[in-house]
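pinging the channel bc i need a second pair of eyes. not urgent but kinda urgent?? the chain im working w is below, pasted from the shared doc
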Amino acid sequence: MINKIARSVADALAGIQDGATVLIGGFGTAGIPGELIDGLVEQGAKDLIVVNNNAGNGETGLAALLKAGRVRKIICSFPRQADSQVFDGLYRSGKLELELVPQGNLAERIRAAGAGIGAFFCPTGYGTQLAGNRETREIDGKQYVLEYPIHGDVALIKAERGDRWGNLVYRKAARNFGPVMAMASKKTIATVHDIAELGTLDPESIVTPGIFVHQVVRIERVATQAGGFKKAA
């Protein structure tokens, strides 16, 4: 019997190894798998490469993972904001490597990994430092930069509902990077608020099929306020 429901966050994260590339969902404060990030801090894996939309806010979530010294490199689009003091301190002191990627490129590089695409040409970044020394090519009179996929060893994502086969349904903007990260990783761990009985999820509403999901953890529903501060619902 296929049953991908993990007993706890700790059980779901137990196999993550040092040096792993971890894709973490979330956009702003929407769809952040906070419980899984906190669990990863407790789990203890180090020298991680983290792929995320930003580099953490305040002192919690991804910022807490950075502060714990577990991350060697971060690949993201928006590393700095008003409350990115943890990232700022680590980066300026040379303790954290940054690969800055335009957000469209980031999403497409992750999607390409899940789709089995070896590389692709994209116009964004041409003629800037972001292009680095990568190959460029003129296509139909326009210049493009060669981009490579971003593969993950594990993806940590947040969904709204799931079943024991791992089928996932998201809530509005909380979907963001979740579907492409699930496809791009060797292992996907998802938190959900509700566990549905098999057959009760509308097949037309399932965004991430269970074939891309390895473990599902049920978490309590917590209200998220602007700025990332949380309080009990």
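so The mean pLDDT is 94. and The chain has six helices and 15 strands. — does that match what u expected or am i reading it wrong
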